[in-house]
């Protein structure tokens, strides 16, 4: 049976992951069979079982299935455990082992591609969903200073802060508190608001002239936040395309034991300026 790989999500039709993994495979002479599978939450476990029985040995998991993927894994890596979310599944007999490569993907993009030294950076994380859970531990590991988490539903921000277990470094605030929080060195938009055509309410005082802003989404969903960041005076404003390619490279390494060169794939995708509806 040919080993198969897939990305599960809902929706997932516009995912760039099949293209990225095909490009990575080509670097090593591998003909990678990787396709997108649309699975509604109620169907995910059954469809993943069918995928496994058909030769599936590795899968990525995206919105809104990352927490469900965490729950179904027989074992999870440390990054996935700290995130409470899984974006990479690795077949382990009849079962699955779960990892989370989102956070290292973001840090590799910011530190590697954009040359940012994140140590001691006062950081604002907007959102507390699956992506925020994935990136928060990696940002802390990268040495950022104080991390402030703000989420529309405050209880989810509190739950994330509790899971991170660093009360001296991680705090939560309500959206209404934003005007009183001062400015941040790094502002991460991990909300999915733009997918519903909404731009979260932000004000210019959150940024200074050295600030970096990153929207984990890319294409048209990132336009509003990046326009806000530039108007607010941020020095650097980037979307989530680099993170997408970097997290894919980490997943590829976990499955195939070799790390692809991300630069040509990133450059190609950026040049094509595709505008997908979903992020990964
Ligand atoms: P989730 O559905 O898990 O979480 C969504 C988050 O957005 C929640 O914190 C939610 O708040 C918040 N939110 C939704 N609507 C609004 C709104 N109108 N105003 C304020 N906050 C809102 O999604 P993910 O965490 O998986 O995805 C978040 C973003 O990250 C998406 O743009 C996604 O495409 C992107 N992403 C990018 C990746 C990459 O590799 N570049 C990888 C993974 C994700 P609440 O808790 O109140 O509902």
Topology, number of strands = 12
Give every kind of bound small molecule, once each: NADPH dihydro-nicotinamide-adenine-dinucleotide phosphate
- Strand and helix order: EHEHEHEHEEHEHEHEEEHEHH
Main pleated-sheet profile: 6 strands, mixed
- Based on helices, strands and strand pairing, what is the structural class? alpha/beta
Q: Numbering strands along the chain, what is their spatial order in the largest sheet?
A: 2-1-3-5-6-4
Average pLDDT, rounded to a whole number, is 95
Q: Judging from the principal axes of the Cα atoms, what is the shape?
A: globular
Q: Helical element count?
A: 10
Share of helical residues: 25-40%
Strand fraction = 15-25%
What is the CA–CA distance across the termini? 27 Å
Give the radius of gyration: 18 Å
Low-confidence stretches: 275-279
């Amino acid at each position: 049976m040919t080993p198969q790989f897939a990305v599960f999500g809902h929706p997932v039709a516009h995912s760039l992951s099949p293209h990225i993994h095909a490009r990575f495979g080509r670097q090593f002479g591998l003909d990678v069979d990787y396709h997108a599978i649309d699975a509604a939450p109620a169907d995910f476990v059954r469809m993943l079982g069918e995928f496994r029985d058909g030769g599936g040995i590795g899968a990525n998991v995206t919105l809104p299935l990352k927490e469900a993927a965490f729950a179904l894994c027989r074992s999870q890596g440390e990054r996935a455990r700290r995130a409470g979310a899984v974006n990479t599944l690795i077949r382990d007999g009849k079962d699955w082992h779960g990892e989370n490569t989102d956070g290292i993907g973001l840090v590799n993009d910011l530190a590697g591609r954009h040359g940012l030294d994140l140590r001691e950076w006062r950081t604002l994380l907007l959102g507390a969903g699956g992506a925020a859970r994935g990136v928060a531990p990696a940002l802390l590991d990268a040495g950022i200073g104080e991390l402030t988490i703000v989420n529309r539903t405050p209880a989810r921000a509190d739950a994330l802060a509790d899971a991170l277990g660093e009360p001296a470094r991680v705090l939560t605030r309500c959206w209404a508190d934003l005007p009183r929080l001062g400015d941040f060195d790094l502002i991460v938009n991990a909300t999915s608001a733009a997918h519903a055509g909404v731009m979260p309410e932000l004000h210019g005082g959150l940024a200074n002239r050295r600030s970096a802003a990153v929207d984990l989404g890319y294409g048209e969903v990132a336009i509003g936040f990046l326009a806000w960041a530039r108007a607010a005076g941020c020095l650097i404003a980037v979307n989530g395309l680099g993170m997408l390619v970097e997290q894919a490279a980490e997943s590829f390494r976990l499955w195939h034991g070799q790390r692809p060169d991300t630069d040509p794939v990133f450059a190609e995708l950026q040049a094509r300026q595709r505008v997908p509806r979903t992020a990964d």
